[in-house]
């Protein structure tokens, strides 16, 4: 039996806005690798009409894109099978967070990249910090924009290296005004929305701290697997409900768990008769949240019990949980007493544990 | 103060910050000079590092150079010629050099200030290891004693600062340590530690810029760019555990830690001593210690938390509860209710 190929290495060029130079730097390094004799191909490249960047593709083999028809229009996507057949040493893939057109075998480009890595191909790719799933609420708080194309944090965590491609907001705005980044129409819209200077400065800070975190986790790899380098071993439990706030709670709990190198579980508590007893919308909302947690690599369980707080705390105790995450009750709402009682009781029952009450974020002025 | 310094001068300062020599600061700087020239800006080079890889040499060939003067075998920027030539921008590699005795300024960064005040912009570079305030931290990683540095406040006056980042396995990176330094760390780990420090320093500079920008444009505070943890101390709280956890969390998130105590009238001697001990522990943990006042402790804490952009409040919880608490909600309940938009972490006593 043939050996499975060794998994390829992933390198991510991290920025905080379009036009920050991620693709440029990726291509420049690709050229340098080619000069050193590495077999480099371009798997996907988005030219955006940027001349300086296009010039950097010269001499690099480009794997033709695949055309897919969808609703009467033709879309072009990365031809993952063709790249796998070609087996290059390194494949350059632009726009890691891209969503494929329906009809592709994977919904997301990062899943295509997974296949390339599994085929033993090294991949270099580009992404902006706002596409990281766990920062979704913070990015919304800063910019007012809900980013829909997200990448689960564990995908970035798998990268061998994450390199920060830094540029100052001022330089970025200059580029935008000179028409280097987008055509004039799009540039004007961008300047009014996403590209406000305060947004860019804030996103840049997020990116720098994320890059520092990526360096930190890679160097904190314990020598012995399973050994904790410092601090007590933390275990985090997230309480999932049908409430929309569960999504933010999951992102928040998982982000804290990742930073503390903690194990992370998510549970929902339903009546003794099981999930089927719940109304359809209620059950579907819970299932959606459980599924969301699993996609972020959070282990999930469905518990049954009459008393939610008690079931939660008993599970936590049994699994040596150190910190329970619950949503902040909505005050003044219809079921305020219920929510308040739950938090109150969890705090009282969880004697040795910490309880984190996560508040929904608001935008200033909204 | 730094903002005033920026306003007083007319040239703009842009600094490329790298964590080691060899990451590509000179290349990025000269590449920027090239692009500015192509756009019609009058750019000259006034100082460049003596050891240059071929790609840096190639960029340099297309640029005008005002050579430094040699005094006692030390390269010194020819400030007089730069001022006389009056370009729009000047490239100065290696900001952290001392000038030899007899020069007008003792340090190169002072020369840079003179040039900026004359209305000429400066594109400069510095290695993280040469920032004065980081000397101890850097020395703990590299074991090298650094003598020529620039002060952090000079870096803070930069209009723009750019991190030049690269993975620590680049072959051209210099071994950053001396043998025996930082036991248990190899060369790659030392480089990684420096790299992380550079990214955090840049994030902190950017954070200051953000605050200044929002203030000067009258924009309401914009929070969420970093984790800010506030630990609330009471005489009976298990302060040691909360502070230790706060420190660990702040470090992991590369964020900020504050510890607050709301002054209350009469305290028993024991309680007073407990509070003092907790605040001392907080200072020991490099937390910012805040003493708050106010009739209503929760209101005082929330007011401070909002002003500071706190994202997580750590609170102690006691299980002794009065009948009053049970009916009207104890302090923890009132706290959670008040903490709109802020996470509350409740610690057991």
What does this entry show, briefly?
By secondary structure, chain A is of the alpha/beta class.
Structure description:
- The complex is a heterodimer of chains A (366) and B (349).
- Chain A contains 13 helices and 13 strands.
- Chain A is of the alpha/beta class.
- Chain A has two domains: 10-219, P-loop containing nucleotide triphosphate hydrolases (Rossmann fold); 235-358, Rossmann fold (3-Layer(aba) Sandwich), CATH 3.40.50.620.
- In chain A, the strands form three sheets. In chain A, strands 3-2-6-7-1-8 form a six-stranded parallel beta sheet, with helices on both faces. A five-stranded parallel beta sheet of chain A has the order 11-10-9-12-13, sandwiched between helices. Chain A has a two-stranded antiparallel ribbon with strand order 4-5.
- In chain A, helix 2 (51-55) links the parallel strand 2 (40-44) and strand 3 (61-62).
- Chain A is globular.
- The termini of chain A are far apart.
- The model of chain A is unreliable at 222-229 (pLDDT under 50).
- Chain B is an alpha/beta fold.
- Chain B has two domains: 2-216, P-loop containing nucleotide triphosphate hydrolases (Rossmann fold), CATH 3.40.50.300; 228-348, Rossmann fold, CATH 3.40.50.620.
- Helices cover 42% and strands 19% of the residues of chain B.
- Chain B contains 13 helices and 13 strands.
- The longest helix of chain B has 30 residues, at 187-216.
- Chain B is elongated and about 75 Å long.
- Classes of the chains: A alpha/beta (366), B alpha/beta (349).
- Chains A and B meet through helix 5, strand 8, helix 9, helix 10 and helix 13 of A and strand 8, helix 8, helix 9, helix 13 and strand 13 of B.
């Amino acid at each position: 039996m043939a050996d499975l190929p060794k998994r390829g290495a992933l390198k991510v060029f991290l920025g905080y806005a379009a036009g920050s130079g991620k693709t440029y730097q990726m291509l420049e390094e690709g050229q340098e690798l080619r000069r050193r004799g590495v077999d480099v191909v371009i798997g996907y490249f988005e030219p955006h009409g940027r001349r300086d960047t296009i010039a950097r593709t010269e001499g690099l083999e480009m794997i033709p894109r695949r055309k897919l028809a969808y609703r009467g229009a033709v879309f072009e996507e990365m031809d993952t099978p063709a790249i796998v057949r070609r087996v290059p040493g390194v494949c350059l893939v632009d726009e890691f967070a891209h969503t494929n057109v329906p009809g592709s075998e994977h919904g997301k480009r990062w899943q295509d990249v997974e296949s390339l890595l599994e085929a033993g191909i090294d991949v270099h790719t580009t992404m902006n910090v706002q596409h990281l799933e766990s920062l979704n609420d913070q990015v919304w708080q800063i910019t007012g924009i809900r980013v829909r194309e997200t990448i689960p944090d564990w995908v970035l965590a798998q990268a061998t290296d994450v390199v920060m491609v830094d540029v100052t907001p001022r330089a970025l705005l200059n580029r935008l005004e000179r028409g280097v980044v987008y055509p004039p129409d799009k540039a004007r819209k961008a300047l009014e929305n996403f590209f406000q200077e305060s947004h860019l400065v804030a996103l840049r800070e997020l990116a720098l701290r994320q890059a520092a975190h990526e360096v930190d986790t890679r160097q904190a790899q314990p020598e012995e697997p399973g050994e904790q380098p410092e601090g007590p071993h933390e275990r985090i439990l997230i309480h999932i409900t049908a409430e929309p706030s569960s999504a933010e709670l999951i992102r928040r709990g998982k982000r804290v768990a990742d930073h503390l190198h903690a194990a992370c579980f998510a549970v929902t508590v339903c009546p003794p008769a099981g999930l089927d007893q719940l109304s359809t919308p209620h059950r579907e909302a819970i299932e959606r949240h459980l599924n969301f947690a699993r996609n972020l690599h959070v282990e999930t369980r469905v518990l049954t019990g009459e008393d939610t707080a008690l079931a939660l705390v008993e599970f936590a105790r049994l699994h040596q949980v150190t910190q329970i995450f619950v949503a902040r009750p909505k005050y003044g709402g219809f079921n305020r007493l219920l929510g308040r009682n739950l938090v109150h009781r969890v705090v009282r029952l969880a004697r040795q544990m910490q309880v984190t009450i996560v508040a929904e974020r608001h935008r200033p002025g909204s | 103060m730094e903002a005033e310094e920026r306003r007083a001068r007319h040239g703009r300062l842009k600094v490329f910050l790298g964590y080691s020599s060899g990451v590509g600061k000179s290349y990025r700087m000269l590449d920027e000079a090239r692009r500015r020239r192509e756009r019609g800006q009058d750019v000259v080079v006034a100082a460049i590092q003596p050891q240059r890889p071929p790609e840096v040499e190639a960029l340099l060939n297309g640029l005008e150079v005002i050579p430094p003067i040699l005094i006692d075998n030390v390269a010194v920027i020819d400030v007089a010629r730069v001022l006389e030539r009056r370009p729009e921008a000047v490239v100065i590699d290696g900001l952290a050099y001392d000038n030899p005795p007899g020069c007008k300024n003792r340090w190169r960064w002072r020369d840079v200030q003179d040039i900026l005040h004359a209305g000429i912009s400066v594109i400069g570079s510095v290695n993280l290891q040469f920032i004065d305030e980081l000397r101890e931290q850097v020395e703990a990683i590299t074991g090298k004693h650094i003598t020529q540095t620039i002060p952090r406040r000079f870096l803070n006056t930069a209009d723009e600062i750019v991190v030049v980042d690269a993975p620590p396995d680049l072959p051209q990176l210099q071994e950053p340590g001396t043998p025996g330094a930082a036991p248990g760390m190899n060369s790659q780990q030392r480089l990684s530690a420096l790299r992380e420090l550079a990214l955090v320093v840049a994030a902190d500079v950017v954070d200051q810029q953000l605050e200044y920008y929002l203030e000067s444009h009258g924009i309401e505070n914009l929070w969420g760019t970093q984790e800010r943890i506030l630990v609330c101390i009471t005489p009976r709280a298990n302060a040691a555990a909360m502070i230790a956890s706060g420190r660990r969390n702040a470090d992991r998130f590369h964020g900020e830690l504050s510890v607050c105590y709301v002054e209350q009238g009469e305290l028993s001697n024991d309680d007073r001593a407990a509070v003092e001990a907790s605040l001392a522990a907080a200072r020991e943990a490099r937390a910012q210690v805040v003493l708050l006042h106010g009739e209503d402790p929760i209101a005082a804490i929330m007011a401070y938390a909002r002003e500071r952009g706190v994202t997580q409040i750590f609170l102690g919880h006691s299980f002794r509860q009065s009948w009053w608490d049970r009916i009207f909600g104890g302090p923890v309940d009132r706290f959670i209710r008040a903490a709109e938009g802020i996470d509350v972490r409740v610690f057991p006593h």
